[in-house]
């Protein structure tokens, strides 16, 4: 059977992803969290794994550079890629929220929203009819309302510790996030057997 290429998000979900793949029978001997290698083959050469930044996984899959991707729903929503989302892998659970210095929305003219996810923020407020200005940040987003650069943030909350330690409150809860399995549309048509076999194995482990 032909080999499939899987784009795996680096970072905090990679360990769970590799464990899941192992339990499904895909072993990547030379993969560990410290490696600088980016491409790995499984024992039986049925799968090539490429290790990429989480935010880039939907791009690799949409372009067909990878047939399959494992990535957080946050990055899928932000990328708005033309791909299939086939499975919820049930780890990397967290939530998108709107948060700020007070428990309600407070702003003078236009609401200024800082986020690593400007598309998600824009879509959320547009649906409510609230015009916003977005400020794209790449981390430490909680700082923006603290220093007066933004009125609120749209960010991920897991334990709530980061918000709490910075004196921020949740104003509104948004989508639930978890790690998902995504598939390139053309690959799903041309490598149907290999992809379906892979998905069946993953589903069996998840059950
Ligand atoms: N606090 C959290 N708790 C649980 N899951 C999280 C949390 N923060 C992020 N995630 C999930 O884990 C994925 C990977 O997060 P990680 O912080 O490793 O990547 P990143 O945002 O690309 O980081 P960086 O830009 O710092 O490299 C996110 O896309 C999200 O789905
Ligand atoms: O509710 P908590 O358990 O505190 O988790 C939430 C934090 O985790 C993520 O940040 P990350 O650790 O990825 O750092 P970053 O600021 O570089 O995005 C997220 O952006 C929040 O800041």
For the structure shown, list the relevant keywords:
207 residues, alpha/beta, D-Maltodextrin-Binding Protein, domain 2, 6-stranded mixed sheet, 5-stranded mixed sheet, 8 helices, 30% strand, binds adenosine-5'-triphosphate, binds 1-O-pyrophosphono-5-O-phosphono-alpha-D-ribofuranose, ATP_PRibTrfase_CS, ATP_PRibTrfase_HisG, histidine biosynthesis
Structural class: alpha/beta
Largest beta-sheet characterization: 6 strands, mixed
Please compute the radius of gyration using only Cα atoms. 19 Å
Shape, please?
elongated
Strand arrangement across the biggest beta sheet: 2-3-1-4-11-5
Number of domains: 2
- Our measurement of the CA-to-CA distance between the termini, rounded to an integer number of angstroms, reads 25 Å
Task: Give the overall pLDDT as a whole number.
Answer: 96
β-strand amount = 25-35%
From the 3D coordinates, which CATH architecture of the largest domain would you assign?
A: 3-Layer(aba) Sandwich
* Assigned CATH class of the largest domain: Alpha Beta
Ligand roster: adenosine-5'-triphosphate, 1-O-pyrophosphono-5-O-phosphono-alpha-D-ribofuranose
Discrete helix count: 8
The CATH topology of the largest domain corresponds to: D-Maltodextrin-Binding Protein, domain 2
Protein name: ATP phosphoribosyltransferase
Pfam families: HisG (PF01634)
Keywords: Amino-acid biosynthesis, ATP-binding, Cytoplasm, Glycosyltransferase, Histidine biosynthesis, Nucleotide-binding, Transferase
Subunit structure: Heteromultimer composed of HisG and HisZ subunits.
